[in-house]
Design a protein that fits this description.
single chain, about 425 residues, alpha+beta, OB fold (Dihydrolipoamide Acetyltransferase, E2P), five-stranded antiparallel β-sheet
Length: about 425
């Protein structure tokens, strides 16, 4: 039942009640009130009365009608229109994926790193540990990178809940360092590196920011002790394996190659006896190990080597042979003896007169070489004379008679 209908019924009921009251008297007044109440209750039960909407204030009406600042587009004097710009923005890919290398600018330092603008929706963060491949103890972010510096960064994480990415400089430098090391290894040249640590097996060197292992057996003249830290050594590569992250270097190989390039047969060198063997002595010469064979110590026979040489003794030797590829040299002291057997009787005299004796030795060797060349020349000339005699004899025979002349005649007679 509609509200209007209910009101009409109430009005009618009230009118009838009033008429009845006027006609009959007070006895009919309660009946009219009862009819009015029942009509209103029936109407409320069938359809609830809707609440009135709250009245908005003037400020609320203005706020609801406000659509923000109106931007008037004006592309006069520009090389492009706003529509072109919107198309270019839609066509641009703003995806930032892990391991991508992007260009960015350092904005400011922050706790534990710095903020980097890489053009993403949120600034990226560069931790101090990722700011450089080479870091010294106590370095802060201010020591490693400058504000307003523009450079390449590698993304090393996904976006967090705030849309921020982590970036790194160290990983870019790490790849570049391996490229440099591989190129050096291909050249097989000598390079220098600084020792940054030692352990029981050898030392740790820093090669273009990469940690390389230097075995103790490939150190020349030193042991892998704390005193080695901070020293710069000449090195050569022994093993370069990027996949296994393995880098092994040698100081001995670099020293041997450098010194072997300046050594030649006949040179006089000074060394220290390191060890005695039944077949001779090993002499260390500037980081290299040379063999002084028993037969090259003296022209006289040696029955007991320990009576002639002792480990730690300084000796002068002549290089009689060398292997530059493997860094081996053969030494001799008997070529320096002024008189045969001096190494057994007076080795000090041998070493004091080493240069003088070596000069006489070279003169003697040169004279012997020239004598051999003359002898070889005489032999060649003698062979030439013999060949000339043989040639002249054959010519005389050809002029006197032709050994095939009769055969030719006989053949002609047979064919005729």
């Amino acid at each position: 039942m509609r509200l209007s209908q209910a009101l009409a019924l109430v009005t009618a009921a009230a009118a009838s009640g009033a008429a009845a009251a006027f006609t009959v008297g007070p006895a009919f007044v309660p009946a009219a009130n009862t009819a009015l109440k029942s009509a209103v209750a029936e109407t409320v039960g069938e359809e609830a009365v809707k609440p009135k909407a709250p009245q908005l204030s003037r400020f609320d009406r203005l706020k609801a009608a406000y659509k923000g600042p109106q931007i008037v587009k004006n592309d006069e004097g520009l090389d492009f229109s706003y529509d072109d710009f919107d198309s270019a923005v839609e066509a641009t890919d703003y995806a930032f994926n892990r391991n991508d290398v992007v260009k960015g600018t350092v904005v400011q330092y922050d706790n534990g790193g710095c903020i980097v603008d890489i053009g993403a929706k949120a600034s990226a963060f560069l931790p101090t540990a990722e700011a450089s491949l080479i870091m010294n103890q106590g370095d802060d972010i201010e020591d490693l990178i400058n504000v307003d510096e523009e450079r390449n960064f590698q993304i090393i994480s996904e976006e967090d809940e705030n849309g921020q990415l982590l970036v790194s400089v160290r990983r870019i430098q790490y790849r570049e360092a391996w490229d440099t090391v591989i190129a050096k290894n291909a050249e097989d040249g000598v390079f220098e590196a600084t020792v940054v640590g030692v352990n029981r097996g050898g030392a740790i060197c820093l090669v273009d920011g990469l940690r390389a292992f230097l075995p103790g057996s490939h150190l020349t003249g030193q042991l892998p002790t704390e005193d080695l830290i901070g020293q710069t050594l000449p090195l050569k590569f022994l093993e370069v394996n990027q996949e296994a992250n393995k880098l092994v270097v040698s100081n001995r190989r670099a020293v041997v190659e450098e010194q072997m390039s300046d050594l030649s047969r006949g040179d006089i060198i000074t060394g220290i006896v390191k060890a005695l063997k039944p077949y001779g002595a090993f002499v260390e010469v500037g980081g290299m190990s040379g063999l002084l064979h028993l037969s090259q110590i003296s022209y006289d026979r040696i029955d007991d080597l320990e009576k002639v040489l002792q480990p730690g003794t300084q000796v002068k030797c002549m290089i009689i042979d060398h292997d530059k590829v493997n860094g081996r040299i053969a030494l001799s002291t008997k070529t320096l003896e002024p008189e045969p057997g001096d190494m057994l009787r007076d080795p000090k005299r041998v070493f004091e007169m080493a240069e003088e004796t070596a000069a006489r030795y070279h003169e003697r060797m040169e004279a012997e070489r020239k004598a051999r060349e003359e002898a070889a020349k005489d032999i060649v000339l003698g062979l030439g004379d013999s060949l000339d005699d043989l040639t002249s004899s054959s010519d005389d025979d050809s002029e006197g008679s032709d050994p095939l002349a009769d055969v030719s005649d006989n053949l002609d007679s047979l064919l005729s």
